[in-house]
Design brief:
With about 240 residues, the chain is α/β, with parallel strands linked by helices. The protein has a single domain, classed as NAD(P)-binding Rossmann-like Domain (Rossmann fold). About 45% of the residues lie in helices and about 15% in strands.
């Protein structure tokens, strides 16, 4: 049984990923920061379905607290699957964007990737098997009005993951990025109505969190061992 850490595991996409990886037989560590109760509820659901799971709460923006939480996790063995899903929006046109809006989004999505991934790497590399998957966004590929901070953070993930993929390739680790388009969930459903989605998405529907989770599960599998350094879009043919 491999151990998988999913940051932002209590959100819509994160929850679907946790459930899918647990169903594949992995021990799932559901990370949360602002929503520990949702993480606990998800762990209970996974266990009720016969899976193995636990929670882990820390702020990915804080290097020291992240390192301490990860050190504690590693006492039970290496994490061999890391899904970096933590991310936030704080939208505004760049001309009116405040410095804290820029910094917060970069801190969670991009600096958070470093804070969580770096302390896990050597133990993972020692096992000579690992999967690191970052959840990005179509905004990181195409850009999006009012989301210069979010697009910059996600595009930064693309470069970081491509570089890391090269660094760890000889150690049996793969590093990939998934860039979803419009995926249904409590935040998306407040922004896009059905008519808007039909105009934007060639497939005329929003994606499902479970569809993203299925792609994550494949990339985390033994069968995907020769796929690394890639950005895989899942967006209903938007681009």
């Amino acid at each position: 049984m491999k151990r998988a850490l999913i940051t932002g595991g209590s959100g819509d996409i994160g929850s679907a990923i946790c459930l899918r990886l647990a169903s594949a037989g992995h021990h799932v560590v559901v990370h949360a920061n602002r929503n520990p109760d949702r993480a606990e509820t998800l762990v209970e659901e996974i266990r009720s379905l016969g899976g193995s799971a636990e929670t882990c709460c820390f702020d990915v923006r804080e290097t020291e607290s992240a390192a301490q939480a990860i050190e504690k996790l590693l006492t039970d063995g290496p994490i061999q699957i890391l899904i970096h899903n933590a991310g936030i929006h704080d939208d505004a046109p760049l001309a009116g964007m405040q410095p804290n809006q820029w910094q917060r989004v970069i801190d969670v999505s991009l600096n958070g990737f470093y804070n969580v991934t770096q302390p896990l790497l050597l133990p993972m590399m020692a096992t000579r098997w690992g999967r690191i998957i970052s959840i990005s966004s179509i905004a990181g590929i195409m850009g999006n009005r009012g989301q210069a901070n979010y697009a910059a953070a996600k595009a930064g993930l693309h470069g970081a993951c491509k570089s890391l993929a090269i660094e760890v390739a000889s150690r049996g680790l793969t590093v990939n990025t998934i860039a979803p388009g419009i995926i249904s969930g409590h935040l998306t459903d407040q922004v896009f109505d059905d008519q808007a989605i039909k105009q934007i998405v060639p497939m005329k529907r929003a994606g499902k969190p479970e569809e993203v989770a299925s792609l994550v599960n494949y990339l985390a599998s033994q069968e995907a061992g020769y796929i690394s350094g890639q950005i895989l879009s899942i967006n209903g043919a938007m681009a």
